[in-house]
């Protein structure tokens, strides 16, 4: 019979502590395992410290934590090979420290009210009573001549301390599970919990399952004679050899120089299986003025990415805290993935408190700065790669620039845009390569560095430019004016027209770009941004073309005639018809007509659509620019010659001219919007009618 050394009462100030804890953490009972395994790993780390200081007489042994499921006993035990406790330490740490930390946990919970708490951390050892009706501790201290101690408590405030039979150093905490908590006897449940919370703890965590032979899964191979023997009491228990169930290695805790690219990739695949490979990563590694370690990955962005939901995992000392650390990292970095580990992020606080915490804000700034540094480093060292990733990186960088002033300043020199300019070939051009400040490899020293190659990356990749370079290159032709395109396919006619006249167009075609153009305008109030289809620059128009008088009696010019022709044919009061002779080396190279929508009108339209959460409608007020230099338009005038199209009694030629006016307008409109069913039907019918008439004429 074991001798009871002491029976006592645990000092308790908060009445009914267990009902309170149970109520608050009702959905989070599972955290008990995280707390017990963390304590076990702490005990092993403490033993190491003792050993370093030379206080440990014997061997350190193999550090490991073993979780044992005993199905027959309905117990779950967590054993470690750590520092252990003497009877006095059990009294002090378990009866006093553990209980007072549980009490202070409850106090903090009360203070936070109904707000969501980030981690439920710090409840510690007592969290085991959320799932156990009785908890035993058997422990043997590392200290010379220490006696093993047994502690037992049934969840009341009374405990019992006696001698234990434990013969090896360390601590075993055994939970006698409550009836409704039997799920923790299932190996897959324990595996899942360890994978979630303790996967990266730096000690092997093993799982051992003891079950009655009859409960065990049938053997895959026929029983051998030995196993088929009459079961003795011990043989009736099937004990599977402990298997390690945590990954153990936490790459973010290692030095970046110790990891290869493949190590980073492998870790990404481990965290986010079946996902596309990331573009690049940033290894966070600082001890001062706060401790932050982590690896952040830039994934490929999908246009429908939800930038409000984070996927970065938050850890504290390698123990998983939360899948979402929206309060800890700047909003614009939420699409990043990976791990952040910091002991300096307060965990038993509400999320709103966290947002206003000074250290957390400084950590967020630090992370943003490291991300900016990484991008600058890539820009400097591997411009081709930077350009290759830009489609995805650009979204982060632009979003970050809009949202974070410090980040904006950091990356403004590395914001690039795809351009129509043939860089390197532009006459006598030697674009100035912006200097980029990059953190040196060995610490916080900063140096100016020029990118390895000029803006145009390698010859076969599309050319990219910075805004500064663009403005500089075009300062004589169109000072402080930027032409841009948002849809390369739809706006191709306009882009070609600009290109032909040597006007450089930037492609601003990612989903963030409409906001980004407004942002750039605020940043550069003296620069005007016009989409290629907003208006035509004077350089595109042949102003010297003499006005052709076609009717000496009325002094009507060819342009007046064309305008009248279209006005009558289309009969759209809100449509402005403008006639211009467009410059071109090849008359067929520019379109006969274009639809223009003034920049301010288009943006107003987009804004309204956004606010009303509707699709953008193309406004009826727009301009049809008819190119009087185009042969088609000139033929059209001849066709209608003599008889301006009348609504009634039209001649066959006038009718054909009418149809062609509609057709030219529809073709021009196509670059701006698609047809609805009715419009499409009319377009097809008219196309056929025009072709029929033309073939009739040709055949006759
Ligand atoms: N497996 C163990 N081995 C040795 N000592 C332990 C073990 N588990 C708990 N202890 C001791 O009991 C104390 C109380 O544990 P408890 O988990 O309640 O709080 P904590 O670990 O100190 O703090 P927290 O869990 O809030 O981080 C620990 O500080 C430690 O000294």
UniProtKB/TrEMBL annotation:
One Pfam family linked to the record: HATPase_c
Keyword hit for Chaperone: yes
Region (Disordered): 212-235, 428-465
Domain Histidine kinase/HSP90-like ATPase: 28-181
InterPro entries documented for this protein: HATPase_C_sf (IPR036890), HATPase_dom (IPR003594), Heat_shock_protein_90_CS (IPR019805), HSP90_C (IPR037196), Hsp90_fam (IPR001404), Hsp90_N (IPR020575), Ribosomal_Su5_D2-typ_SF (IPR020568)
Gene3D superfamilies: 3.30.230.80, 3.40.50.11260, Heat shock protein 90, C-terminal domain, Histidine kinase-like ATPase, C-terminal domain
Compositional bias of kind Low complexity: 214-235, 448-463
Keywords in alphabetical order: ATP-binding, Chaperone, Nucleotide-binding
Keyword Nucleotide-binding: yes
PROSITE patterns listed in its UniProt record: HSP90 (PS00298)
PANTHER family: HEAT SHOCK PROTEIN 90 FAMILY MEMBER
Protein family according to the UniProt entry: Belongs to the heat shock protein 90 family.
Name this polypeptide is given: Molecular chaperone HtpG
Species of origin: Stenomitos frigidus AS-A4
